[in-house]
Amino acid sequence: MANFMENSNNSNNQLQSFISTLKPLALVLLALLIILALPLILQEFGFNFSQKDNLSKISPETETPINSSDSQILFSQVNPEEGYTIKAKYGNIGPKLLESGAIDFEKFKDIYARSGSPLTEEQIKILTQGADKEITVNQDNAHFLLNFFWALGLANKNPILDKGAITKYGQDQIGSFASTGGWTIGTKDTMDFYSKSEIILLNPEQQAKVDEVTNNVFRPCCNNSTAFPDCNHGMALLGVLELMAANDASVSEMYEAAKYFNGFWFPQQYFDLALYFKAKDGLDFKDVDPKIIVGPEYSSGSGFAKTKKWLSDNNLIEKAPQGGGSCGV
Predict the structure, then answer these.
(1) Is the pLDDT confidence value at 18 over 50?
(2) Is 110 helix (H, G, I), strand (E, B) or coil?
(3) What three-state secondary structure class fits 116?
(4) Do residues 189 and 198 touch, judged by C-beta distance below 8 A?
(5) Tens of pLDDT along 149-201?
(6) Distance CA 116, CA 113 (A)
(7) Which of 20, 22, 28, 271 is deepest in the core (most CB within 10 A)?
(8) Closest Cα to residue 230, out of 301, 297, 295, 293?
């Protein structure tokens, strides 16, 4: 009996020892089973690791969601329905442009007739008689004002045209730039009226404002500032800024005007910029500092390309809610 009890105790001890040996192995096996089953469990409850690539692109800076109603609101800030009014009037600029040969009225009128948007009676009066009315850019007249100010930028005598970058880089080929050679609706060859007419006279202080702002305002179609107006948008904005300076607009008012004229002339690109600032910084377009948005970081061709890439990387590419914009002529 004593031997039986002793054998029984030995058996129990061996069993407990065996169980003790198995416990760590069982825990390891259980952990492996849980790890192997985890993806199936997570998938069952709606988790999906296939989104890893997209998630890795999203930073805390992109937490502001953009929906369709937000997009419409943003675009209404880029191209406000009421337009944007500058501190300047049309005056007798139209008749002076006709007189200078910068605009052939019949050719100018035909451009709009063939585009399906004939000149309005008011626009005809602006060109032929002048108008004592403040200038407001909006979706309806953005194309008209692009050509109107393009002609003004070309014809008005200014040091930027006579001694600036366009002269430095163009040398004896100034007439071959898009802003010069591309203007085909004058009564003369472009170089016959280029910087020849004193339509807008600026004093040294006013010219200094134009010099400052034009050197810091860019456009998404290239890497040149308005101080190098080699394309139509640059030449047109030069005309806008000269006119504003002549009416003693402040530098900040001129930057703001550049922001909105760019918005009407480049509606898709500036809608993209509005999306960027809203998603990345939580800023509405109307609250973005004009000097920053029109500067090289965002409004130059290369700067805008970086912004567009950021939007693409974060799946925020979107078509502007409404059309608009034109390259003029």
Answers:
(1) no
(2) helix
(3) coil
(4) no
(5) 999 999 999 999 999 999 999 988 999 999 999 999 999 999 999 999 999 99
(6) 5
(7) 271
(8) 301
Distance CA 286, CA 277 (A): 10
Is residue 153 within 8 A of residue 229, CB to CB? The reply is yes
Tell me how long the chain is: 329
Task: Calculate ∠ Cα 324-291-237, nearest 5°.
Answer: 50
Token code pair at residue 276: 């960027």
Cβ(281)–Cβ(61) below 8 Å: yes
Identify the sign of the CA torsion 152, 135, 233, 227.
positive
Distance CA 130, CA 92 (A): 4
Task: List the structure tokens of 281.
Answer: 């910084």
Identity of the residue numbered 63: E
How far apart CA 150 and CA 102 sit, in angstroms, is: 10
* Tokens coding 82: 């009421």
Q: Give Cβ neighbours of residue 125 (< 8 Å, ≥ 6 apart).
A: 131
